[in-house]
């Protein structure tokens, strides 16, 4: 049996002393960033797993980070990739991941966060589906609880965050459809309460308007295409007069649902209507090459958010890490 990697294993491979390796793995503030990254990369490569039980007894901390997600009847490709990425990034550190969920249809996102904080289930929280004045963010700021967010909000305090530039995505999608001669555009839009929806619609509208394009917004369908009501609403819109010439989607599941409805109506993508979608993994074009797509690197987001959560725990006085991925 192959021996289990230890701190001495990493020390031998990195050239650093064991105490330095230990402090680099726990994100100690006196360790240089280059040293920390080198040590943690080696730890990942050799499969090092810290003794978290011993650390909990020694410090009283949970050494866990909670990823709080809203889910429907099934876990989406986006959520699955985010979970895996955060977990993999945390593996060589002193922290492990727990995932807690709430129902997107009936659950209370704030209560899910409060449950983690008030029961001491984790040392930091990562959340997504951020709203402009997100109550969860306000609660954690007021409580002084470490957290990182996937998105942006309007609260004035700096927060650890990673976001995808959805305004740029909207502009890219609009230009691509305009180049195809499409002017009547339908967007299968996420809930307007989420900040990325406003950015997306702004990017679409500001690009379409000068070129004489029009934007129709279909709400109540995004994330609901696996329900009878969601499918019926989508089918109804596509059956109405003055059908869209181009359609913009924000997820793989929405795009596949649109493709199914188009086929039922005898419409051919790339000939009768053009589609532009955003995916966490480039999958749709394997089924329908005519679909134009752009990939949001959810795995990069997960890695950044994992590191950011550790930073706000270990170095609370440091500037909050923040990054915007611009396509």
UniProtKB/TrEMBL annotation:
The keyword Transcription applies. SUPFAM superfamilies: lambda repressor-like DNA-binding domains, Periplasmic binding protein-like I. It comes from the Bacteria. GO terms for molecular function: DNA-binding transcription factor activity; transcription cis-regulatory region binding. Keywords: DNA-binding, Transcription, Transcription regulation. Residues 5-59 form the HTH lacI-type domain. PANTHER family: LACI-RELATED TRANSCRIPTIONAL REPRESSOR, LACTOSE OPERON REPRESSOR. This is HTH-type transcriptional regulator RafR. It comes from Pseudoruegeria aquimaris. The gene is rafR_3.
């Amino acid at each position: 049996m192959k021996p289990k990697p230890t701190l001495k294993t990493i020390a031998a491979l990195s050239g650093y002393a064991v105490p330095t390796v230990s402090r680099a793995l726990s994100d100690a503030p006196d360790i240089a960033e280059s040293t920390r990254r080198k040590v943690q990369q080696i730890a990942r490569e050799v499969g090092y797993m810290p003794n978290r039980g011993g650390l909990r007894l020694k410090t009283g901390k949970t050494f866990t980070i909670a990823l709080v997600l809203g889910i429907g009847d099934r876990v989406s490709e986006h959520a699955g990739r985010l979970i895996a990425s955060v977990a993999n990034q945390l593996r060589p550190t002193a922290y492990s991941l727990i995932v807690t969920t709430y129902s997107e249809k009936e659950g209370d996102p704030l209560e899910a966060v409060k449950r983690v904080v008030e029961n001491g289930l984790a040392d930091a929280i990562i959340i997504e589906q951020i709203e402009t004045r997100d109550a969860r963010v306000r609660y954690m700021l007021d409580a002084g609880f470490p957290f990182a967010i996937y998105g942006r909000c309007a609260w004035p305090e700096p927060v650890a965050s990673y976001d995808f530039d959805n305004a740029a995505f909207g502009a890219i999608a609009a230009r691509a459809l305009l180049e195809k001669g499409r002017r009547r555009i339908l967007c299968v839009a996420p809930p307007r309460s989420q900040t990325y929806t406003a950015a997306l619609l702004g990017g679409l509208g500001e690009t379409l308007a000068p070129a004489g394009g029009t934007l129709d917004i279909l709400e109540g369908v995004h994330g609901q295409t696996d329900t009878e009501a969601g499918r019926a609403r989508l089918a109804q819109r596509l059956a109405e007069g003055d059908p869209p010439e181009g359609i913009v989607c924000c997820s793989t599941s929405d795009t596949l649902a649109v493709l199914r409805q188009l086929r039922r109506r005898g419409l051919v993508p790339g000939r009768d209507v053009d589609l532009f979608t955003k995916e966490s993994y480039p999958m749709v074009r394997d089924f329908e090459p005519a679909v134009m797509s752009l990939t949001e690197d959810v795995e990069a987001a997960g890695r950044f958010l994992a590191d950011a959560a550790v930073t706000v725990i270990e170095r609370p006085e440091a500037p909050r890490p923040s990054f915007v991925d611009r396509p």
